[in-house]
From TrEMBL:
It comes from Calocera viscosa (strain TUFC12733). It comes from the Eukaryota. Gene3D superfamilies: Medium-chain alcohol dehydrogenases, catalytic domain, NAD(P)-binding Rossmann-like Domain. This is NAD(P)-binding protein. It holds the Pfam family ADH_N. GO terms for molecular function: oxidoreductase activity. Residues 15-350 form the Enoyl reductase (ER) domain. Coiled coil: none annotated.
Length: 353
């Protein structure tokens, strides 16, 4: 049986880190029914990969291939995959949301999961067999590296900004945590939609990068105790309530509601700070008196993925890439080290040799 290189998870004891080995694994002779085979050209790392390796992510499966971001060339179709025949031999991008369900944009179904260890094999391999509904034509204008950086962070940001946040032209939008993959896309999408966008970071360099490269209006250091007042002054106006929509993945609900305008929306897609949130009586009054919305968001549907790809192509958006390394054992270890360090600005990509 032929083999291929892949990054495979090996589970450890609870409370101790798992192992992610770069190793050789078997390659099936052909895709299963309902699947299409993609020869992977480039993949990108995510914070989720680090959490899986650190054994702080739920529902892990031993011996599965990691990774949820990737793109490549469609090379073979299994039985029942004939709808993808026009894409054979062409570049394709992989949707990381598996089994979203029939709810459309409303919400995911009970079988929803993310590629790469739940329990579907992920993108960190030289070939990948993908469900038909998770394969899309690559948008024009992006090379392999930048396209690989797009799927998971792009779809998460698109749903948070457009579907759940309902961001539109002229709005004041705060996207927290400049530098993260999702936040970077969220800023790009909100700017392209015509909003006035602001951000936060403990790094002045990341704020400056967002201003110069993405076009945000400015940002403040979230470690300052009065950062919400600083941001309100930066936005302008006569009130601390200066923001129409907050897009947050850091877990800053208590602070962010201080900035919301009446009927404002706080949309959150994660809690990277892992900080508990406590709303006091005044916070609760603030929410209902403002008639504010608190909306959760995660990944996105196939319909939203196609919308996002079309928007990226229409507005000629370029994903921000921090570094590119070869898909080798050494390249994997170096990329993982960069991810753990956390200083990157944009996505970390591995490119096939």
């Amino acid at each position: 049986m032929p083999e291929m290189n892949a990054v495979v998870l090996h589970l450890s004891k609870p409370g101790t880190p798992n192992e992610a080995r770069f190793e050789r694994i078997p390659l099936l002779s052909s895709p299963k029914p309902g699947y299409a085979r993609v020869k992977i050209s480039a993949v990108a790392l995510n914070k989720r990969d680090q959490w899986i390796i650190n054994n702080t992510y739920p529902n892990l499966y031993d011996g599965t291939v990691l990774g949820c971001d990737g793109m490549g060339v469609l090379t073979a179709l299994g039985p029942g995959a004939s709808s993808l025949y026009p894409l054979l031999g062409k570049r394709a991008v992989i949707l990381p949301s598996v089994a979203w369900g029939s709810g459309g944009k409303h919400a995911q179904g009970p079988e929803f999961r993310v590629l790469g260890n739940q329990p579907d094999d992920g993108t960190f391999s030289e070939y990948m067999d993908v469900l038909v509904e998770n394969v899309s034509a690559a948008p024009e204008g992006l090379d392999d590296v930048h396209l690989a950086a797009l799927p998971s962070s792009g779809i998460t940001a698109w749903r948070a900004v457009k579907t759940r946040g309902e961001v539109d032209r002229g709005m004041n939008v705060l996207v927290t945590a400049a530098g993260s993959g999702v936040s970077t896309f969220a800023m790009q999408f909100a700017v392209a939609l015509g909003a006035r966008v602001w951000t936060t970071s403990s790094s002045k360099d990341k704020i400056d990068f967002a201003v110069k490269t993405i076009g945000v209006g400015g940002g403040v250091n979230y470690k300052d105790k009065d950062w919400t007042s600083q941001l309100a002054k930066l936005v302008g106006g006569n009130s601390d309530r200066a923001i129409d929509v907050v897009i947050d993945g850091s877990g800053s609900l208590e602070e962010c509601i201080k900035l919301l305008r009446p009927r404002g929306r706080y949309v959150f897609f994660g809690n990277t700070s892992q900080r508990a949130t406590t709303l006091n009586v005044q916070d609760i009054r603030t929410i209902y008196r403002l008639q504010a919305d608190i909306r959760g968001s995660t990944m996105g549907s196939p319909e939203e993925f196609e919308e996002m790809l079309a928007f990226v192509q229409e507005h000629k958006l370029q994903p921000i890439v921090s570094s590119v390394r070869p898909f080798t054992a050494e390249g994997w270890e170096q990329a993982l080290g960069e991810l753990e360090k956390g200083d990157q600005q944009g996505k970390i990509v591995l490119k096939m040799q």
